[in-house]
Amino acid sequence: MQSWMADVRYAWRKLFSRSGLGGTVVAILSIGLGVGVSTAIFAAVDQILISALPYPEPQRVVVLTDRTNDNGEPLPVAYGTFLEIEQRARSFEMLAVSRSWQPSLTAAGEPTRLAGDLVSPDYFAALGVRPSLGRDFTTADDMTGAPWVVIVTTSFAERRFGSVEAVLDRTITLDGESVTVIGVMPGSFENALSPAAEIWAPLRFRAGQPFESVEWGHNLRMVGRMRAGVTLDQARREMLAIGSTPVAEFPRPAHASMQRGLALQSLHASVTSGVRPALLMILGAVLLLLAIACANVTNILLARALARRA
């Protein structure tokens, strides 16, 4: 112990002596900068690219897109396509669709534009999340002529009405229509498909519409929860089989023929595909910076060792 303490005192004197102070400061700054930046970037990469999405069994949640255009790139699906897949597919426990919605909230003062989504009844169930207060949408809510109802986020309820209890069953005015708040999502809920959304209402698209109608436009995000034990490859093969075997009960227009099948990928891969290359490039650059910092410190230590020998 005495020998070890003597070594520590000697190292301390050498590190902070007048001749060694500059090198010590440079070494500390180099390693500190390299480790600090690397840790921050890796934390971001881990949160975005590695950590699972905050849903029950997130590996079972997938995004489905059409590939009807000539180059085979993914497209939003049509409502008619969703109805056919919902009825014919056996790989999914449930399927749902959504589209962006920006209603105007009329309250005291100027109207406020909100970010929201119009969704089919099983949207939250497909993600595996339920309202923490109130109830979820039902098929009856999605019927034409039914009273308008909405579900909101916890942050919206607290910001606009002071608490989640104050907003439940409350009537608010959206786009000039009176709607009732029937549910509040948990405060921890993260809507990966539409992160900015803070209010949801029933989609209310109708089956059996002409091919020129909005129901047949490529305007819907489609999400599904695969059945337990079903793999992505199995679900992809089923989508290709359904696309290549049209049936009379579900007529298809040319622009939504599904001849190339539907593309499937996990929800995690879908929401991170746009940022994955950039984040990996940044992570590589930061690791290179850390390597350079380590090389600089090594050079400083070698130079000081040579100086002592001289």
Description:
This protein is of the alpha+beta class and 310 residues long. It has two domains: 2-51 and 274-309; 58-272, no CATH class. The chain is built from nine helices and twelve strands. It has helices at residues 2-15, 21-50, 79-88, 123-127, 154-161, 164-167, 232-244, 267-272, 276-309, and strands at residues 61-66, 92-101, 104-106, 112-113, 116-119, 133-134, 149-152, 171-174, 177-184, 199-202, 221-226, 262-266. Strands 1, 2, 3, 4, 5, 6, 7, 8, 9, 10, 11 and 12 form a twelve-stranded mixed β-sheet that branches. The protein is elongated and about 90 Å long. The relative contact order is 0.19.
Helix content: 40-55%
Largest sheet: 12 strands, mixed
Fraction in beta strands? 15-25%
Instruction: Give the overall shape, derived from the CA principal axes.
Output: elongated
Order of helices and strands: HHEHEEEEHEEHHEEEEHEHH
Secondary structure tally: strands: 12
CA-to-CA gap between the ends?
30 Å
How many separate helices? 9
What are the low-pLDDT stretches, counting only 5+ consecutive residues below 50? none
Provide key terms for this protein.
2 domains, 9 helices, alpha+beta, 40% helix, 12 strands, 12-stranded mixed β-sheet, 310 residues
